[in-house]
UniProtKB/TrEMBL annotation:
Belongs to the short-chain dehydrogenases/reductases (SDR) family. One of its GO terms (molecular function) is oxidoreductase activity. It comes from the Bacteria. It comes from Candidatus Allocopromorpha excrementipullorum. Transmembrane segments: none annotated. Keywords: Lipid metabolism, NAD, Oxidoreductase, Steroid metabolism. This is SDR family oxidoreductase. Pfam families: adh_short_C2 (PF13561). GO terms for biological process: bile acid metabolic process.
Length: 258
């Protein structure tokens, strides 16, 4: 559709080396955008070359890195139209009684400050009428025991999204976040959390994890000109999980109690 074309748009995507970020970079490039892929992993250079994108190595927890990313991308392609703050990390199960400050700080610096820095410097190098998109999580509902550090970080991303939407509205810059359930990416199989994350995916009414391409499609929808009146929103893409757990999961639990 013409109004969902990204032809000539300048986009920056963090965490673009794999998973959702990679799928989004490929989709946006195919839709006509000029994409700068950012990732802490130097191997992303090969992925960027394969797609036909520009790559800037970036540690989103470092303010200077993020400023350099936005400045370099704008110098390479021109003023930014789209910034997607997608880079993030996860942790294994950690009950509050065993809360480790280092774990909380690590997730805060990457997941929260990465988005804050992305907004701060993204808007600085962005033309009026642009859009900033953040990756939050359906766990921003706060209803998963044992994942306090991750939930804290993603609730914060939702909050900062809404603040930014209000602050940047005078420039007609929209700010939204997506809240996916478990995405079927390498991070979902990380040591220490693979079983729990896969179960979270299976318990959705649709009975599976979200595919990276499906979440990338939501980013594309929100970035399109036809969505210019949507801002300050946290939009769930969770296979129906927010509506309630899958019937098959409830049936299994009830059977175990008999």
């Amino acid at each position: 559709m013409k109004n969902f074309s990204l032809e000539g748009k300048v986009a920056v995507i963090t965490g673009a080396g794999s998973g959702l970020g990679y799928a989004t970079a490929r989709r946006f490039h195919d839709a006509g955008a000029m994409v700068t892929m950012a990732d802490i992993n130097e191997n992303t250079t090969a992925a960027a070359e394969e797609i036909g994108c520009f790559f800037v190595r970036t540690d989103v927890s470092k303010e200077a890195d993020v400023e350099n990313l936005m400045k370099t991308a704008s110098e390479h392609y021109g003023p930014l139209d789209i910034v997607i703050n997608n880079a993030g990390i996860i942790c294994g199960e950690e009950l509050l009684e065993n809360a480790d400050a280092a774990t909380y700080e690590s997730l805060f610096h990457v997941n929260v400050m990465g988005a804050v820095f992305g907004i701060k410097y993204g808007q600085k190098y962005m033309r009026d009428g642009g859009i900033i998109l953040n990756t939050a999580s359906n766990s921003a509902n706060g209803d998963y025991a044992g994942y306090g550090p991750y939930i804290m970080s993603k609730i914060s991303v939702v909050g900062i999204t809404k603040v930014a939407a209000i602050e940047l509205a005078p420039r007609n810059i929209r700010v939204n976040c997506i809240c996916p359930n478990t995405i079927d990416t390498p991070m979902a199989y990380a040591e220490g959390c693979e079983t729990e994350l896969q179960v979270m995916g299976i318990q959705t009414p649709l009975g599976r994890m979200c595919k990276p391409e499906e979440a990338a499609a939501l980013f594309h929808f929100l970035a399109a000109d036809d969505c210019r009146y949507i801002t300050g929103e946290d939009i769930y893409i969770d296979g129906g999980l927010k509506a309630g757990p899958a019937n098959q999961m409830i049936e299994a639990i009830l059977k175990s109690l008999q």
